[in-house]
Amino acid sequence: KRWTNDIEKILFRSSFDTASDYFKLQRTPKDWKPVKRGVYYDADLENNSLLIKTDSALGSGKEVFVYFYGQDELMVGGVVIRFTKALEYRLWVCSTVYTVF
Predict the structure, then answer these.
(1) Mind listing the pLDDT tens digit for each residue in 39-68?
(2) Closest CA to 82 of 55, 101, 64, 68
């Protein structure tokens, strides 16, 4: 079973996400929404793309940290993007290492 089929909500992790400023789903209005960390947002990622906006710079050490949730708000995965010397990402649950974009 592909985990993307289960995603119904997203959450910007309040204790780790230091970089996400705004987000929108591709099929929502053009307005960017300010990120409120620790809040569940409805997000059918099977039919929508998630876009995240930040002013964070490479080398800042900041992170985008988004969890993906399925039914009953059970975590099914996530993504972490780190602003180190090089931009790196990690697929939460699927991998334990960071990869340079």
Answers:
(1) 988 887 877 888 899 999 999 999 999 998
(2) 64
